UniProtKB/TrEMBL annotation:
GO MF annotation, one: ATP hydrolysis activity
Keyword tags: Signal
GO biological process, one term: nuclear membrane organization
Organism: Sinocyclocheilus grahami (Dianchi golden-line fish)
Domain AAA+ ATPase: 62-189
Name this polypeptide is given: Torsin-1A-like
GO cellular component terms given for this protein: endoplasmic reticulum lumen; nuclear envelope
SMART domains found in the cross-reference section: AAA (SM00382)
PANTHER family: TORSIN, TORSIN-1B
Top-level taxon in the UniProt lineage: Eukaryota
Family classification: Belongs to the ClpA/ClpB family. Torsin subfamily.
Amino acid sequence: GFWDFFNVFSKDDDLLSFNSSESNMLSDLEKDLRKSLFGQHIAVDTVLKAVSWFMKDPDPPKPLVLSFHGPTGVGKNYISKIIARNIYKVGLKSNHVHIFISDYHFPHKEELQLRQWIHGNVSNFPRSMFIFDEMDRMHPRLIDTLKPFLDNNDNVDGVSFNKAIFIFLSQTGGHIITNVTLDFWRKGNNREELQLQSEEMETQIFEYLFNDENSMYGLWHSSLINQHLIDHYIPFLPLEVKHVHQCVMAEMLHLNMTQDYDLADRVVRDMPVFPEEEKVFAVKGCRCVRQKLVLYLSLD
Ligand SMILES: Nc1ncnc2c1ncn2[C@@H]1O[C@H](COP(=O)(O)OP(=O)(O)OP(=O)(O)O)[C@@H](O)[C@H]1O
């Protein structure tokens, strides 16, 4: 059938090695995270541990389920890409990485299609990765469809899902994370000392997820929380101006330019910041950094 056709392409050698203890894979993921992702120490530490342990486990008891939260442009999609490029040789281009955008895929809320999509992909290749963008716009019926796959079931219709990775992205709770980070900054603390437990951030996020009347369908997370299907809730902090500066410098490298610190300064100075008085954080994070940068470049 349809999935047999895909079997031709699915070989384990699509995977980068995590398996042997001398594998340098772990440090590759670590190096990449520390080099590429700015200002997200909580996400870096949590993702590094969770993904490394999961990938080294030949027989995980359940799939790995991560939920990323935070304001716009702070690296939620980007870290998913970093994870993918350290698991699969061709990264996001791998046939085993599947990105689901709520409004785009299955607009008619076809539960059966979603079910077959996940089931087919995982039976074809157990170490598949599913990224659900804009989770807060996902229809509750589709979320219900996902549940059996996330649980520690031994199998669903003869297929084990325990080696799959599910990543949920949303801005749900982003304003809480932003407020906590701002308060922490105002008290003169070092950003790197902020932890999930600091200032009751985790508790506040959970409360909000349970009572989220602002998201399109409300309560999108409550059933997932109730059943403990999500392994890690990971907050992404608003980025400070200096992090956006780092993003501009990185973008210069991508464009094969020599890095110009002062030019990066001017680009950053153009971007909206908040709060009004203190001007600490970038409103859009590192989003649109490239577009801003090219406006400062001449065409010769
Ligand atoms: N913390 C970061 N470190 C380095 N680059 C970043 C970071 N955050 C964002 N970027 C850059 O900005 C681009 C946009 O970020 P990304 O798509 O990850 O935002 P997001 O948090 O997923 O936002 P949204 O919720 O709006 O989808 C990334 O492709 C990356 O180039």
